[in-house]
Design the sequence.
């Protein structure tokens, strides 16, 4: 019986440490935004002369 009383607070603490949906959504949205910005920056760079020479058959 005493063990059950000790286990209850531990279970509540374990449940509390999980991120909420909003926290997970914000973190995922931030990662997607960072990837999109990196892709935009990569696409905005002009192609280098070396890469254009190898692209032509």
Sequence:
């Amino acid at each position: 019986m005493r063990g059950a009383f000790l286990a209850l607070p531990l279970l509540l603490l374990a449940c509390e440490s999980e991120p909420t949906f909003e926290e997970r959504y914000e973190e995922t949205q931030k990662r997607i935004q960072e990837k999109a910005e990196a892709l935009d920056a990569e696409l905005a760079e002009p192609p280098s002369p070396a890469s254009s020479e190898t692209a032509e058959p």
